[in-house]
Amino acid sequence: MGSSREYESEKTMIKPVGMSIAGLDTGNGAGGETDLRVFEVLGIHGVFAITAITAQSTKGIKDITVVNPEFLKKQIETLLEDFKVEAVKIGMIYTKEQFQVVNELLNDYFLVADPVLYAKDGTPLIRDIEEYKKIILPKVKVITPNIIEASAISGVKIEKESDVVIVCKKLRDSYNIPYVIIKGGHSKGDYSFDYMCNDEGLYKIGYKRLQAKDTHGTGSVFATALTAEYIKIRDLKLAFRKARDFVQTSIEYGLNIGKGIGPVNVSVEIMKKSMKYEAVEEMRRFADFAENNDRFWILIPEVQSNLAHSIKPEYVRDLNDIATFRGRIIRRWDKKVIVGHPVVFGNPTHTARMLLSLILKGKDSTCLMNIRYDDKIVESFKRIGYETIEINRELEPAHGEGKTMQWIIEYVSSEYGGIPNVIYDKGTKGKEAMIRFWTKNMEEMIEALDNLLKML
Ligand SMILES: Nc1ncnc2c1ncn2[C@@H]1O[C@H](COP(=O)(O)OP(=O)(O)O)[C@@H](O)[C@H]1O
Ligand SMILES: Cc1ncc(COP(=O)(O)OP(=O)(O)O)c(N)n1
Is 297 in the same domain as 155? Predict the structure, then answer.
């Protein structure tokens, strides 16, 4: 046996470093600690120099303790002498003495300023605004105000798109800022437009305005994501698009925690990726079960089977969150069952569509398989303890291809109130009779089919 030294890696692991200079939000929704989480999920090692501690929750800010400028200086110096900081995001920074520290220490750095004049509850987060304009703004490469902040800093009220152009120009000219990004979260309309202006002109991105309650931290998260993306790709226009995309997803999955405005969900993308990985592993487990059970062929209809398996239902939005086997589950001439790998997401199979309809209807279901219709199979499901329901495919309206699965779920739900685990039909002209069986999880699916096969 070789010693463990043989396997020691010679490679050193490195990560780019980004810095946040910001206040601490004790509720972990908007301050420097959230910036660290954003840096982390975007592949940056975040470091944090703290300017103030806010006693804050989803209900707002109760109090603020400001860090003295000497200690802010000590923190920044300590970090800069050790790490190669690639870019710095400046969030809440409170006093002119603190601004002077930044002015003194961060001359040669790429600075992104989020001028958080007020928190959502109206609490001022930058006290000496006039000094901020004089000391901080001329140093920054990018500024990311919302329309209220942009109006307050420029003195020009933003009411329409042409005002954005005027304010952009004014901010760029007055403070010599190369990139001004004005965020449209506080404007009205079906789309939330953000504008970036630079030497080349105005560039606008619009995303559907989400009717979301839990939006605490949108601005902080946007500016930090922009900083992180800039560090990675060094292209601010592309970083703008990526940061905007990141914020949209974070708002879409905002966290309904606390009694007030919950934080946006910055880790949702990596969580969904890891859930998808788990789903693939479970599909493999199912494939082993199906291929190694010598009676599994009994369950396979003429049109063959498939298994649809989703990530946690609350994270499911569309077919991209549902896995199936690309080559279906096939019964060979010699009764051998072959599972057609690979597992793929976003495959518009009947099983995936039906599972999606079930989930969108509010069912806590993650697995669904289509099974050959046979009286004995339906009876066995009943004996195991599952409720069954028969539907008549003759009743299906002529709604074109691709709508049948949704119709079955809508029909069962409206006619019978609930949606039993076993839904079957005896077929119609050109349509094979079929059983569809759904379960809460993979454990239950495998156990139920195992029991069923022992009865047949
Ligand atoms: N309801 C929403 N739907 C979609 N995007 C939004 C919504 N609210 C804010 N945003 C986006 O979130 C980001 C932060 O914007 P904004 O809320 O204006 O900043 P701040 O948090 O500084 O007030 C912007 O990209 C904006 O377009
Ligand atoms: C400590 C701290 N820093 C910044 C903010 C404001 O951030 P923002 O992203 O604008 O979030 P909302 O307050 O608007 O939700 C903060 N609240 N606390």
Answer: no
